[in-house]
Amino acid sequence: MEQERDVEAVIGDCAVYETGLRSSTRLPMQQAAQAARRTDGFVWIGLQNPTAEDVLKVAQEFRLPPLAVEDAIKARQRPKLEIYEDEHVWFMVLRPVRYVDREEIVEVEEIALFVGEHFLVSVRHGDNDVLTRVRRELDAGKLEASQRGPIAVLHRVADLIVDEYALVAAAIEDDIAEIEQQVFGEREADHTERIYKLKREVLEFRRAVLPLGEPVLKLMSGAGALAGIDKGARKYFRDVHDHIMRVTDEIERQDSLLSDVLQANVARLSVTQNDVAMRQNEDMRKISAWAAIGLAPTAIAGVYGMNFEHMPELGWKYGYLYALALIASISVGLWALFKRNDWL
Amino acid sequence: MEQERDVEAVIGDCAVYETGLRSSTRLPMQQAAQAARRTDGFVWIGLQNPTAEDVLKVAQEFRLPPLAVEDAIKARQRPKLEIYEDEHVWFMVLRPVRYVDREEIVEVEEIALFVGEHFLVSVRHGDNDVLTRVRRELDAGKLEASQRGPIAVLHRVADLIVDEYALVAAAIEDDIAEIEQQVFGEREADHTERIYKLKREVLEFRRAVLPLGEPVLKLMSGAGALAGIDKGARKYFRDVHDHIMRVTDEIERQDSLLSDVLQANVARLSVTQNDVAMRQNEDMRKISAWAAIGLAPTAIAGVYGMNFEHMPELGWKYGYLYALALIASISVGLWALFKRNDWL
Amino acid sequence: MEQERDVEAVIGDCAVYETGLRSSTRLPMQQAAQAARRTDGFVWIGLQNPTAEDVLKVAQEFRLPPLAVEDAIKARQRPKLEIYEDEHVWFMVLRPVRYVDREEIVEVEEIALFVGEHFLVSVRHGDNDVLTRVRRELDAGKLEASQRGPIAVLHRVADLIVDEYALVAAAIEDDIAEIEQQVFGEREADHTERIYKLKREVLEFRRAVLPLGEPVLKLMSGAGALAGIDKGARKYFRDVHDHIMRVTDEIERQDSLLSDVLQANVARLSVTQNDVAMRQNEDMRKISAWAAIGLAPTAIAGVYGMNFEHMPELGWKYGYLYALALIASISVGLWALFKRNDWL
Amino acid sequence: MEQERDVEAVIGDCAVYETGLRSSTRLPMQQAAQAARRTDGFVWIGLQNPTAEDVLKVAQEFRLPPLAVEDAIKARQRPKLEIYEDEHVWFMVLRPVRYVDREEIVEVEEIALFVGEHFLVSVRHGDNDVLTRVRRELDAGKLEASQRGPIAVLHRVADLIVDEYALVAAAIEDDIAEIEQQVFGEREADHTERIYKLKREVLEFRRAVLPLGEPVLKLMSGAGALAGIDKGARKYFRDVHDHIMRVTDEIERQDSLLSDVLQANVARLSVTQNDVAMRQNEDMRKISAWAAIGLAPTAIAGVYGMNFEHMPELGWKYGYLYALALIASISVGLWALFKRNDWL
Amino acid sequence: MEQERDVEAVIGDCAVYETGLRSSTRLPMQQAAQAARRTDGFVWIGLQNPTAEDVLKVAQEFRLPPLAVEDAIKARQRPKLEIYEDEHVWFMVLRPVRYVDREEIVEVEEIALFVGEHFLVSVRHGDNDVLTRVRRELDAGKLEASQRGPIAVLHRVADLIVDEYALVAAAIEDDIAEIEQQVFGEREADHTERIYKLKREVLEFRRAVLPLGEPVLKLMSGAGALAGIDKGARKYFRDVHDHIMRVTDEIERQDSLLSDVLQANVARLSVTQNDVAMRQNEDMRKISAWAAIGLAPTAIAGVYGMNFEHMPELGWKYGYLYALALIASISVGLWALFKRNDWL
Questions:
Q1: Global ipTM
Q2: What is the pLDDT of residues B227-246, one digit of tens each?
Q3: Count of domains for chain C
Q4: Domain region containing A310
Q5: Could you tell me if residue A102 is inside a domain?
């Protein structure tokens, strides 16, 4: 009894749906499992961040395949679709993604769905609201495809998650554009870290999206064990597949762009830094040249400051003027010479 | 009534074509839909930058598949071909491309085509004139393949768009050649930004072209649901496919070339900048060496400027000459020494 | 007899298992081979670091295929699965991996398994404890799948090894995070060696994991010669395959991240080093400028130290003050000039 | 009549071949077309750099498929093979290649071949002599395979062109070896431009060769519409395919080598330039150290050149010697100090 | 007659083998060809570096397919397997490889094998001893598989060659380890050339190994025209295939490692060189700072060496001491200032 209550605590909602409409209020889990065996419609029970025991209890009631249950308990699965023919259950793992723009971080969460003929068990890790939104649409009778039962829900969930992928890709696109402006605009900064970290997030993002292509392709083509999906449903998954392909294209392109921009950043930085070094070198050359010019007067004055008894110039009437003129002309001469050599 | 007029405003033209010739003047949309049901030929209705409601109205009349309609409303789809068997409609998305040479930007627009047995609905986003040109050819009876109905139009549109791809590829080729000349010609400039941005456009371009290969291949091989295409039409799509492959080859090559040229640019820049630095260093070395030579006279003159009472040289008759000679010979000696060390 | 004892020394354990439970104590090898021919269950004989002769003796008793035996003797095989139809034996090579965190080294060991209808011969190179753990589970009746015989053991061994792969991948992930912090944190160090060596280990790791995907896929799909595997077992291998795919994804991503971080490291280093060089250059410029300023007093003092007979300033009453003022004003003037030029 | 003569002007040769031997002199085009309809052998008409009208006239006579004709008129096609089943015509485009060693340029030309049951129309753009050589062999009865009709000619043309590919690859190989010697030999030059340009030509070359692999594979395996090729002919195409694969391998390797050598070139250059900079820096250090040593005598001499009334040293008998000794010892002291610091 | 002797000169050995044993002494070529037609076993004739004529003569006797013969004459083929159904001959090209450790060069040679039902013609280019070793094993009856005729020999030859590949890969591995030690050990050397050249050899090596995978896979799976190979033989080729895959893995890894190590080498070099430059810059700064300090005494002494009539300090009793104290204190002051600025 007490244990039961525990499971109920992690159940977001739980109801029977018939001919596409909600036909019950919130049910306790065990009643739901019984209803699933009787109804022509289906029961949807939604678990939110359940513990392993919670999942196991529900699994027992709905006779879910143990291996799939294990995967639903551990988060961080690859997106995938598994058909358990004996148990007549499909197991799908989806990875909703959110982009935290301020930190430029891609947050990946996880949703596991068990799809039976007359029930749907959803397990959510994280606080993604996709399931809540689909439930609300279903309750409001707005889910156009609701006649088709649990698969319609599966489709809608995948659809919304893939729509979010497009938003994330667009947000990353914006950040790349911003980085480009920075790299080719303000020249003296180093954007290596930002580029690298965004690239890392793009890789993370790709890991959530890429492996989803194959299972959705299977759903869309309805091959093999999936022959049961009617053509109408398949068409809808084709749409989802199309969106995944588009996002995948974008991710590959963004990954490639970020590699290029990293290279461009390094090139720009090295150009900028070399420019600074050159200007510094030029300054040094000028200062040294001026100092060299300054040495001339000192040397000449030194000569006429010698104490030899016999230095004819010292007795000249205009000796001093002559010395000053000598100093001036040598300095100017050096200046002209250095100027010609482009040292000044 | 008023609403009707709205749709008419975004309809470029709308007419019935029979045995390859235009057999009607411009029709209002609803009459066109009725004509499509009666004619042995086909009706072509062309929408230009329609709103969502415009498209939905036309979709209702022609019973177009809802998912495809949704895609036709939202622009920025991947090029693709979808077969809606139940509605007997093909849906194709094409992405015409234009190269704005002055800004080195690839502009991608979008054309969506619904092809039924007896109608063709074209939806154009942007101001691309391919559809207008095909319509004009058709009206003038010049469209050689016009006996084959809507597929002939589809082929011709794809054909013209892919021809434009070739022009864009050629224009990019020219810009790459120009960049190459700059990189290996004028040595002191940094072409990183231009190369990067052109690379980015090439990636954009590739995204418009690459995914088109597969649907056209399907049209060309006429497999599966496309078995309906007669062999004659297939041959034409083979031609289009061939052009796409050629453009794809070019794009891959250009992408690869731009990567190489970016690397070459960096290498050239670093070589050039190092050359400048070396020349600067050499100048510094020379200036410093001259300054060091200039120090010798100062030091010697300083010595003979000391005031000791007993300095025999001071009393010499030719002491002054001797001092000057000493200064000269030491200076020349240093100069020779520095010369030998390659410091001058 | 004496020889027999040799083989026994490298046999870890050897027992008969029936209906999933151990039904014998440790048996000598030859009795085990006989038991394998009679039992409905199976015999598991485990060799630990055996010599070639040891393996050959066991191979003879159990009629193992010679080529596979050769591979089991030589370590350093690729992970693989071989079906020997004539001998009704499967041969699987697995490569357990351990991460020595302190040295950041991936240690790869090897396990070879011969799976017959009623026996299992395991050959272990290295001191990996996976086989011991599986044996213990089996002995304790804890191996849920033990009804299915040797294949269940094969599955469990693969399962544990692949679980270890995940741990290794996580440990590498931690080291990458640490490297990232270092690269973007403490700026003056060179992390090239650490990054390179970790990359090398990731390549080593990938070589152990990647080739395993295909044989497990075969086991999972039960195609061709593997049709004998019942559906239940296949499901379990699907789980293993799923884990391999996940680890493979991680490895590819880590390899790619390490390439990026190596590039980022070089970029950061060059930026840091250039910063230091710039500061050094600036210091040089300042020192040189101060020295150039210091030359002025020397030159002026030198002029007034000349010994000309007619130097009017020398007789001035405030000549000395005037000279000092001249020196001061020229020095200040130069200082102001250099300041304006940003040389100080 | 006059028009006819125009076509004749671009026809290299035109004759009937029966049982592998030339059975006619040069025929005018229209007679050739008639002969093609009657003969058991085949007619080969060769056009050299024809205008569009020339090709169209021939196409009309031989009923060539319009789309293929269009491709034969426009040069710069991808290498390809197209089967026109209705017209019983194969259309093949081949791209002979020549390497202009002096300029290190790959020149790509084009040959289009229409192969019917009893005719062969060859269209040559550029001045490649492969067709002439094949014709000469055929006329001389040397073409071993000539019993098999037009396909034998097609094979021989492809064979010779692919042989030329091997020569081009070898010539490029030589240039790469030369570049390697330069990069690792003479250290101060920048080979970026040469490497880049050769890489560009390799890409051009690859574009001519790579797409040929697939059509020749089809000819070799004789699948589908090509079932008509007898086994003997297939064997010959296998040989051609083999050569293409070999050249393709080489091209990939050369492309990869050039990437590596570009990187090595940059590394070498930066090492060389840094060596130069270091030597320059060392020179500067030496010069500056010498100048610093030179300052000591000046300073000491300056002190004893001061005019204080009370300077005991000035009156010393050996004051002057003492001063000189002081100067000498300080200078030597500094020299020793600098030497110890490795500044000299 | 004389001509015959020529062929015999390039024949290494030639004998009949029956039920796995040598049943004849060395036979002349023509007798061997006759024996091949009569025996139940097979004839093996081995040619060593034959001329074209030699091969042609043997080809005539054994009716070998002309295209294959041509390939056997020209060396430098791709590894391959060709089935000539009409002639009941398989043609296989293998490329033995040797690593010359001292020069770090991969030497690739060539072996061509014609395998008929009752004969084996081997053509060896270079001085590889694999064929000799297999012949010796066969003669000694040691070739376990010799009951299966020529295919067993083919297998053994391939087996030994692939074993050598593993040795070469191991030797390259050693050299890479050595390079790694050098790159991360002795810091001031440039290893670019060695790394590049080893990379080049790895590419050469890969070209010999990679294309062999496919033909051996065919032999192992016994598909299509190879259905004749009995299961036992196939198993052996599976082993060879396994070894090829392992070597291929190694080569890819080595290629990737060498790319990484090249990058690491450049990074290390630039770090080292920058360290040297920084130390040099620091030396320069120190020297300049000392020189600047040395300027102070000169300037002060210069001031008191001026010849003004009215300079009160000159008459002071302790003027000289005061001047020396001034010089000392200013010098020390500057030294303290520079120390604080980290210029000393």
A1: 0.81
A2: 666 777 788 888 899 999 99
A3: 2
A4: 282-340
A5: yes
